[in-house]
Amino acid sequence: MKIYRSNKKSNSLFRKINWIKIFIVLAIIFTISFSVLSLLSQFKSLSNCIRTSSIIAVLIGLEFFLIDFYDNRDRIYFVNKNKISYIEIHEDRDGKLLTNTEYRKYLEDATPKEIYENQEKFEGVDKGEIIEVISIRKRINKTVAKVKVKSKEWDCVGRFTITKMFLNDKEKTKKFIIMNDYEDYNELINYFEKNKR
Q1: Which bin fits 124, alpha (ψ -120 to 50), beta or left (φ > 0)?
Q2: Element (H or E) spanning 68, and its range?
Q3: Which candidate, 70, 65, 74, 59, places its Cα nearest to that of 29?
Q4: Domain limits of the chain?
Q5: What is the chain's alpha carbon radius of gyration, rounded to the nearest angstrom?
Q6: Phi, psi of 136 (to 5 degrees)
Q7: d(CA 197, CA 138)
């Protein structure tokens, strides 16, 4: 069984970020906000419109930068005879059941394989197996795969506070975003392509 996990040191900052998308977003946001602000001020204060539009564009561009830099790196993949399985922090519409710090603590105390095999000891960590890859798209700095999974996920009892957690078997479609700083990234993507229907 081979383990694939994100290693933030494996890629340079230049390769981790989709700079083309960020520059396009900056240009679009600047153009829209400049047009709106110019119309509102009746083209009387163009320097203020340029300054305000630049600030708005940079703030939105910064959000896209931070998403590429920090997000979608907590899932750990296992490959055994072309079958892909994984562990990840449980996340749904209500948020995560586990913080990234708590998850890293689990990974310090046990190996990913131990967590996968003894999931009931690690509340808030889901596991699953990919049944099939429905679609896969490569981007500049990541690969986006739509997959059908058979998973074992944590659910909780309690409306306002968590009173009890239990494991549930589920079968569903998920979107996996695999950033290009995963160890042996191309090899992992090849396994996804082999599982494509």
Answers
A1: left
A2: helix 46-70
A3: 59
A4: 13-70, 72-194
A5: 21
A6: -145, 130
A7: 17
Which among 71, 89, 88 has a CA at the least distance from the CA of 16? 71
Give the 3-state secondary structure of residue 195: coil
180: three-class secondary structure by DSSP: coil
Nearest CA-CA partner of 86 in 191, 157, 196? 191
How much is the pTM?
0.80
Q: What is the pLDDT along the chain (197 residues), one digit of tens a residue?
A: 899 998 877 667 677 788 888 899 999 999 999 999 888 888 788 888 899 999 999 999 888 888 877 777 889 999 998 899 999 998 877 677 888 889 989 999 999 999 999 999 998 899 999 999 999 999 988 999 999 999 999 887 765 555 678 899 999 999 999 999 899 999 999 999 998 87
Which residues neighbour 79 within 8 Å (Cβ) at sequence distance 6 or greater? Answer: 1, 2, 4, 188, 191
